[in-house]
Design a protein that fits this description.
By secondary structure, this protein is mainly β. The protein has one domain: Jelly Rolls (Sandwich), CATH 2.60.120. The protein contains no helices and eight strands. The strands form two sheets. Strands 1-8-3-6 form a four-stranded antiparallel sheet, with no helix packed on it. Strands 2-7-4-5 form a four-stranded antiparallel sheet, with no helix packed on it.
Length: 116
C-alpha cells in the first residue's frame, strides 16, 4: 500500500503588544495520520520584529528546538524542514519566542506534512 500524505495548516497569531518571551499555542493534528514528516512556515505579519523563533513540543517536552523563523520558510531548494515525529494521540504545542515586544501583530501559518 502506498504511503498517504496530508498537509495540515495552523494559523498562529500573537497580537500587537505581546511581550517578549516564549508563547505556546496548542495544535491538534489529524489523528488518522501517525507521523509528522515535515514543517514549513509561511510568515504573514512580523509584528515589527526583525525575527522571531519557532519550535515544537509535546506532552513529553521539546521536539524541535526554537529556531529563527526564516529556517522553516519555503524555498524551492528546501520545501520542507524534515522531521520524524509520532502523532499518536500527542498534544503538540507550537512555541513562538519573541526577542522584543511586538509593535504589530505576529501571524504565520505553520504547515505540517502528515503521513499515514
Amino acid at each position: 500500500m502506498a504511503r498517504q500524505f496530508k498537509k495540515q495548516t495552523v494559523l498562529i497569531e500573537l497580537v500587537n503588544g505581546t511581550a517578549a518571551g516564549e508563547k505556546t499555542s496548542p495544535v491538534n493534528l489529524d489523528p488518522s495520520y501517525t507521523k509528522v514528516k515535515g514543517l514549513r512556515l509561511h510568515p504573514l505579519a512580523d509584528g515589527g520584529l526583525p525575527y522571531y523563533e519557532v519550535g515544537l513540543e509535546d506532552n513529553n517536552g521539546l521536539l524541535v528546538d526554537a529556531e529563527n523563523s526564516r529556517a522553516y520558510a519555503y524555498t524551492a531548494e528546501k520545501p520542507w524542514e524534515p522531521v520524524d515525529l509520532d502523532n499518536k494521540g500527542q498534544q503538540f504545542r507550537v512555541k513562538t519566542v519573541l526577542p522584543a515586544t511586538a509593535t504589530g501583530d505576529v501571524q504565520y501559518q505553520l504547515v505540517f506534512l502528515l503521513e499515514k
